[in-house]
DNA sequence: TTTAAAAACGACATCAGTGTCATTTTTATT
DNA sequence: AATAAAAATGACACTGATGTCGTTTTTAAA
């Protein structure tokens, strides 16, 4: 006499909503996306979405949530396992192919929009700082590891280089969002690549 | 029998509104600023503001308008007058003191927010591209001038280096908006400074 | 001082989006 | 099949912001 819905079912629905939401967020940006846009995209009703998420912010945070923590953990593990810091750094900066390519992380500008437009909200800005900090640490750890192995001879402190990588990448993401092709993200990634080699004293 | 208000008066009022608006925009960000916030800050009524601007976007575009064109023109003139490209480049990147300092252009993140959150609006994105293009040209011209004078020996095309300066600066602006001190903008500006010397082949 | 034009006011109608909740539908278990 | 719990629906009340417009106030010229 008890119809416990399978966890699997709930998870699937949740994922459906998040996928639809991601599509819409990329299309319309964070601020201009409404709950209506989302439930129409999933093919659910208003209440249907509210069953799973309590508002747009909750939905968005779920969407981007954990992603960063995952990659941080993955990086820590890789370092632990003795993966080459230079290879690892390239992977984190440019993806598995370890090489600059056309810019494609279309959610990145939305994430930045989310944090920038919400920067006056105290709780959000705490969250933003945490995320930023985690990103810095990730790169910093890789660089420190490489330094201690004698692979890198950094011209600036690992923290500063880590922050520079993040700023530069964020800048490319933002500019791509607003000027598209014009930004020549591939060429810029190549420049970033060259700059990092210089900053880390790699031949 | 005709009370033509002095242009001076109108200009002053307009400027008052823009100044108040700038303050509020910096405080609350673009999206979260309302017309009400603004007329309360100036000490005017709702209708009062609408007398001068037709909506928030119009107001914001007036605020940032021309600024970029002005600096572009100023740069073109300076090059024409034979100003040293390296000095000029440093001025444009770091202000008159020509040296990296704490990040302080508090309107910059608001400008980025404006363009990023409005990036789906066709007319706005045209405007954004124009602005971006103008910025690229400005830096590109300086670099080309320096190259032809034999002061710079660029490792990448002037256009790519120009775009990199913009991306990096935008990145610092965005990150500062959302993580504040944490971003260590001064250190990053120093790194940017060093990187540019390297990219331009300056001893 | 009168006067007519411009500036400033603020109430108002309108709109878009939000989150809720009583009701209906679907589901898994008995 | 019967049933009870969970999921899904969509109408609803509410909110906050927008731009307008008839009215009042201020202004500078006559």
From TrEMBL, chains A, B:
Residues 34-53 bind DNA. Keywords: DNA-binding, Transcription, Transcription regulation. It holds the Pfam family TetR_N. Residues 11-71 form the HTH tetR-type domain. It comes from Salimicrobium halophilum. GO terms for molecular function: DNA binding. This is DNA-binding transcriptional regulator, AcrR family. SUPFAM superfamilies: Homeodomain-like (SSF46689), Tetracyclin repressor-like, C-terminal domain (SSF48498). It comes from the Bacteria. The keyword Transcription applies. InterPro entries: DNA-bd_HTH_TetR-type_CS, Homeodomain-like_sf, HTH_TetR, Tet_transcr_reg_TetR-rel_C_sf, YfiR_C.
């Amino acid at each position: 006499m008890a119809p416990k819905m399978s966890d699997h079912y709930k998870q699937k629905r949740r994922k459906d909503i998040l996928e639809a939401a991601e599509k819409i967020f990329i299309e319309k940006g964070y601020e201009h996306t409404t709950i209506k846009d989302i439930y129409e995209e999933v093919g659910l009703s208003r209440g249907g979405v509210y069953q799973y998420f309590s508002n747009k912010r909750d939905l968005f945070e779920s969407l981007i949530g954990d992603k960063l923590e995952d990659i941080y953990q993955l990086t820590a593990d890789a370092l632990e396992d003795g993966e080459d810091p230079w290879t690892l750094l390239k992977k984190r900066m440019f993806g598995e192919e370890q090489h600059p390519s056309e810019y494609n992380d279309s959610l990145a500008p939305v994430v930045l929009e989310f944090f920038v437009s919400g920067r006056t909200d105290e709780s959000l800005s705490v969250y933003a700082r945490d995320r930023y900090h985690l990103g810095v640490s990730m790169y910093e750890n890789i660089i420190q590891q490489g330094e201690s192995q004698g692979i890198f001879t950094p011209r600036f402190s690992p923290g500063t280089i880590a922050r520079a990588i993040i700023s530069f990448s964020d800048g490319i993401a933002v500019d791509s969002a607003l000027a598209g092709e014009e930004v020549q993200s591939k060429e810029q990634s190549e420049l970033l690549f060259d700059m990092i080699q210089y900053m880390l004293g790699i031949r």
